[in-house]
Amino acid sequence: MTQPAVPRIQLNDGFSIPQLGFGVFKVDPNETERIVSDALEVGYRHIDTARIYGNEAGVGRAVADSGLPREELFITTKLWNDDQGTQSAFDAFDASLDRLGLDYVDLYLIHWPAPANDRYVETWRAFEQIRESGRVRSIGVSNFLAPHLERLIDETGTVPAVDQIELHPQHQQPETAAFAEAHDIAIQAWGPLGQGKYPLLELPEVTDAASTHDVTPAQVVIRWHLQRGHILFPKSNRRERMAENFDVFGFELTSAEVDAITALEREVRVSSHPDEMN
Ligand code: NDP
Question: At what angle do helices 56-66 and 32-42 cross, to 10 degrees?
Answer without folding.
Answer: 40
